[in-house]
Amino acid sequence: MRSQQLLTALTITSIAGFALFAVTITYIDKPLWIDELHTSWTIHGGFADVIPRGNAGNQAPLYYFILKAVTELAGSSELVLRSFSVISIIACIALMTGWGVMKKVHPVLLGSVMVMFATDHLVTLFALEARPYAFLMFLTILLFTLQTTRIQHFPSWVLKEVMWTLCATAMFYTHYTALPII
User: Helix 133-148 to helix 78-102 angle, to the nearest 10 degrees?
Assistant: First the structure.
């Protein structure tokens, strides 16, 4: 991306990210609800406990391993548990904005769409949950971006294929229901 395109992408991402932040800030540290308690329980053992505890809830392990690592570094408050989902949604916004800039979508249209995305009720719900859905959304958008980006943006065709395969594998191990998307 050229510097002007990068500045446009960063500006749009910042505006949409701020909109998401404004919508989510009042809820992010509220007590966990029942499904989020499963997330908390899954990561509160050792790393060896993540797979069996995830399986008890019929959940794939990747999201929980990442969240376990995050909580080892930052603690395990409601804010920390949910922040990974908020960060995943902001990464979605950044990725979609970058894709839109590469595809030469008009900045006003792109900014409007990203703010609408960031404030959509389902997106904010996923952003506020200590559950794998926001991270799965990010991986799905990443897979779409890899699939629709021309080969010239990658150093080699093999690199793109390896990245696509790693992303698809990560999607499956984040949530087993991602298989039809792949």
Answer: 20
Q: What is the pLDDT along the chain (182 residues), one digit of tens a residue?
A: 578 878 888 888 888 888 888 878 877 778 888 889 999 999 998 999 999 999 998 899 999 999 999 999 999 888 899 999 999 999 999 999 989 988 889 988 998 999 999 989 899 889 889 999 999 999 999 999 988 876 666 667 778 788 889 999 999 999 988 888 87
Of the candidates 53, 33, 34, the residue with the CA atom closest to the CA atom of residue 42:
53
Exposed, middle or buried by CB within 10 Å (0-12, 13-18, 19+), for 110?
A: buried
Structure-token pair, residue 130: 């200590």
Angle between helices 121-128 and 107-119 (to 10 degrees): 60
* Listed residue (180, 152, 182, 177) closest to 166, CA to CA: 182
* Cα distances (angstroms) measured from residue 148 to each of 5, 65, 78: 19, 29, 36
Q: How far apart are CA 97 and CA 168, in angstroms?
A: 21
Cβ contact 148:155 at 8 Å:
no
Pair of tokens at residue 145 = 């971006």
Nearest-angstrom CA–CA distance, 29 and 15: 23
The amino acid present at 174, given as its one-letter code, is T
